[in-house]
Amino acid sequence: MKFRNIFIAGLSVMALASCSDYLEVDAPSQNDPDYVFSDKTEMNNALNGIYASMMSGDTYGDKMFSTYVMNTDVDFKTNSSRFLSGANWSRYDADPDGGAINSTWKQQYTTIELANLFIEGAESSQLYNPEKEEDYKDMRQMIGEAKVMRAIVYHDLTWMFGDPAFSFNSSRTATVKIYPLTDRAEILDKLIADLKEVADDMKSTSELGTVERISKEMAWAMIARIAQTAAGYTLRPDGESYGKMERMNENYLDYYAIARDYTQKVIDSQTHRLGKPFYQVFFDECKNVATPGDDVIWEIPFAKTANGKVGYSHGIKLDSYQSETPHVYGEAKSDVRLNGVYRYLFNENDVRRDYVNQLTKYDAPAGDAMFDNNYTVSNGKWSKLWVPGGLGNQTTDKTGINFPIMRYTDVLLMYAEAINEIEHGVSGPNGAKAVEALAQVRRRAFPNNAELVEPYIAARSSEEAFRKAVLDERKFEFAGENMRWRDLVRHNLLAENVYWTFYRYLSLAESSETTSTNLSSVSAYDFDGNDEAYDKVPFTIRNIRSVDNTMKDEAGNDVPIYPENVFPNQSVKVCRILNPYRTMSSAEANALGLSNVREDIIEWSKEGVIRNEIRFSLRGYIYMTPEEGDENGPGGVVVVNDNGRYSLDSRDLSTFPSSKNLPVIRYILPIPRAVISRAQGQYENKYGYK
């Protein structure tokens, strides 16, 4: 939004950063730190530099929400290669030489260095004096913002690397040149304590008047998120193996208590609510509308045509021809996508389903709207097509669409989860409040179906059932926000989820031509025992390309084919898809009396051969061998990775294999080899990385 101003002003703090071979912070000193930290305007400019650093394409400007999103039942990136490359993290295929992890590591520690420098300078400033009440209040706010950004980065580093390098000292004050690798539990404890110390003194969203700056509520919510991570499972080193899943902390309920207390603070502040319809939250981000007090608590403030790939990597695919599009919206790659089966997991009355799962793309040079025939679907939360007036027909990335780092929805669901874990269900003293927190999220998802809110939750009141209900709600809420795989890890469900995700794809691919022996088990696993739920999944999509977004209702009135809450851009032509969720015969389609109906075949299998995208998109953990076979088995068998050795999967799916009897999945990334080389022997990789 105001990134140009933030970036220019942020040069002040970049100039404060000292050179360090280890951190590789390259910023020659131009401004005297004593001068910068003697003036609040200069300090605010310096603070903006930390915000600017977080907008890098190597981190939150792109890769943190594209490259490092792991394949699950929600987010999914296909891959047709039978060979491991070491650089396809989404399919759990990594090695220390992967180039992107090195650039991301460096950028994250650049941001940390800037935050450390700012905090040290601000806390040493003459203005940081409780007797100077107004100055002190402003200083506490700025220090809090820097501490929250530092906490976000360190928290993400623990998710990516397990036990990363850690220090609250800048390279100017550190007593060692190489930050020590530090246990993740210790890091999270220090982050929680650090934020607790400052959070209450920060300004609320209502005082700031924007969700583009970090507020008190954001600090509280971040404490809760970190505590929730500390309460969960994690992959720990275990000799030369891929590791073992265990609780990060034995006293995990103490961390759930922290999450409960700090989400309660956000809720009690009454600063945020779920006022907007679901689609409007993200549509407004595409329109440059940042509304304080609603769902978004903090979003990264990108600027139009300046930076950020939200809506270019996400959203509806917009093809270009000779670097131009035949419309004003510009090119969009749509390569951060959703699992092709994800949309079938929604209740048909859930208003999130059709907005999030978009099935249309626009070709070039004609610009026709057509069915996006793919193994995955585009994520409609953010799209260049939703930008009013478009960004221009020659634009590519740098959309300037903001990205939400924290939403009130997450606060409500963290609170509900914490109460359930602490009180072992929702019949205890705070159970009603946990139920209400979950109900608020479902009311927005089902505004016209009250029976799917309170009665739905009442039927899931046991500890296990309510835990699953909260996890399911998170599954349907946070697509594209890099949440799902982390939620699964916290509950030790990632291996199970990836295993069933593979068989979900494989069984449907087999069913597209013949009969799958596993589809009924997959269906029963997904739909509480209903083994026929996938029987109506269509493999032929009947559609009409490039028509006006208008049709006749039963009374003969003109109504939108896709209303705004499904397809916000009401001025462009659309692809009318007649059977997105069920089979439809040619006779049934013809009976509708429509012309130009096409039949697009979804070919997940052809002539009995499963497509490579189905076989190999989870190659680092589970895959089907090529027809000619390979070193791990004969042709056409499923093999699972157990600590680096693949073996035939002979499990009976009707027994519902779970994480309890599946090999661990190595989701933690290796420390880049270049970093290990610079660390002078102090770092080494574990988890079976060589």
Question: What is the strand and helix layout of this fold?
Answer:
Layout: H1 3-16, H2 33-36, H3 40-54, E1 87-88, E2 93-94, H4 99-123, H5 133-161, H6 184-199, H7 205-208, H8 216-231, E3 233-236, E4 244-247, H9 252-269, H10 278-286, E5 296-300, E6 317-318, E7 337-339, H11 352-356, E8 357-358, E9 360-362, E10 369-371, E11 376-379, E12 403-407, H12 408-423, H13 431-445, H14 454-458, H15 463-477, H16 484-490, H17 494-511, H18 519-526, E13 540-547, E14 551-552, E15 558-559, E16 574-577, H19 586-591, E17 598-601, E18 605-606, E19 609-610, H20 612-616, E20 622-624, E21 638-642, E22 645-648, H21 673-678
Parallel strand pairs: 6-9
Antiparallel strand pairs: 1-2, 3-4, 5-12, 7-11, 8-11, 9-10, 13-16, 13-17, 14-15, 18-19, 20-21, 21-22
TL;DR?
The protein is about 35% helix and about 10% strand. The strands form nine sheets. A three-stranded mixed sheet has the order 6-9-10, with no helix packed on it. Strands 7-11-8 form a three-stranded antiparallel sheet.
**Rg to the nearest angstrom?**
25 Å
Number of continuous helical runs: 21
Structural class: alpha+beta
Biggest sheet character: 3 strands, mixed
Question: What form results from the Cα inertia axes?
Answer: globular
* CA distance, first residue to last residue: 43 Å
Q: Give the neighbour order of strands across the main sheet.
A: 6-9-10
Helical content stands at 25-40%
List segments where confidence is low: pLDDT < 50 over at least 5 consecutive residues: 1-29
Number of DSSP-assigned strands: 22
Mean pLDDT over the residues:
94
In terms of DSSP E residues, the strand content is 5-15%
Domain SusD-like N-terminal: 21-226
Keywords: Cell outer membrane, Membrane, Signal
Protein name: RagB/SusD family nutrient uptake outer membrane protein
Main location: membrane
